[in-house]
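Is nicotinamide-adenine-dinucleotide placement plausible here? Inputs below.
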Amino acid sequence: MSVPTYDALKLPSHVKTILITGAGGFVGQKLTELLLERFPSLRIITTDIIEPPTFTSDKSRLRVVKADLGDASQLNGIMSGGSEANFELGYAVNVDSHVALLEAAHAHAKATGQEGATKPVYVFVSSLAIYGGPKCRPQDFVVPDETPLLPGTSYGVEKNIIELYAYDYGRKAPSTAASSFMSGVIREPLQGIPTVVPIASGLDDDMLDTMGCYVTRFKTVIRNIAYAICMPESKFKKGESRSINLPGIKVTPRQMLQALEEHGGPEALKLVSFKVDSAVLAICETWAGDYDSTLFQSMGFEVDDKATGYGLAVQDFKQELAAAKK
Ligand SMILES: NC(=O)c1ccc[n+]([C@@H]2O[C@H](COP(=O)([O-])OP(=O)(O)OC[C@H]3O[C@@H](n4cnc5c(N)ncnc54)[C@H](O)[C@@H]3O)[C@@H](O)[C@H]2O)c1
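Reply from A.M.:
I modeled the complex. Tokens:
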């Protein structure tokens, strides 16, 4: 599959309004744009601690709410996620906000008599950081059903807590799932900005060839998150996990650098330097490099082409940069 397809994006008939949290962020903005484009009669509410962008002046289609979702008093039926910059903040944003949002969605469903097929759909963007432990080193291929969840970071623990919590609420909602250098190594040099690769000491470091990075073209991620909203609940096997590993492809840091040179030329590559940061390396060593997504593909989630997917992702970003300059 080299391009995401959209024909399978059909919202369940009871979904008339979608709340998007973190809507000012990387994923939230693109998801809002896709949903606005695909579903003309859908009402969307976007929220973020910063004012999310207004993509349309039609207030009946998009309402923008600025709110701190770590502050339950601002809730009124909403909530979101963020980062683990510090322990307390990580839990407030990644756990407490979802606990409050799930409670609010549950109370709303109860008050309006939404149950069974008409209950609210809750799509939580999790992370591969939920795995970890001896079976998840960067050289490993993860088979989800055979891999214990032993997260090596607070971020992974927080995501894990909410996967289980959302699953439990859903019984009585589908769940979906890197370190910044992995995107920075392309994003920064293509804009003329120097970048540091913190997992290798130089171009001759073996880590550039042995480390697997599980990545997905951004267009495919957004298509798949929208599909998680649309997917019939019957695609989940009874009694089995509600967690979905969004299909990705394995690339090595060396392949990333090759793609950078191909699309940005030798001058882009010159902007990359290497300095091992043991704290970053320790985190990356708790993530596996590849994951079995056969089951999730059979449910309708799409995967990038192994040979061309990464190059296409870099090309997409170059086009975005060119469009932003116009
Ligand atoms: N980008 C990835 O590669 C990736 C991978 C796995 C999981 N995720 C998850 O996907 C989600 C979105 O990621 P992203 O890349 O768009 O991140 P992002 O940082 O671009 O966006 C997150 C948004 O959340 C908002 N936010 C933070 N704290 C808030 C609060 N207290 N109240 C309201 N809003 C708040 C921020 O202002 C930001 O706009 C996150 O939950 C992240 O953990 C992302």
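Short version: DSSP finds ten helices and twelve strands in the chain.
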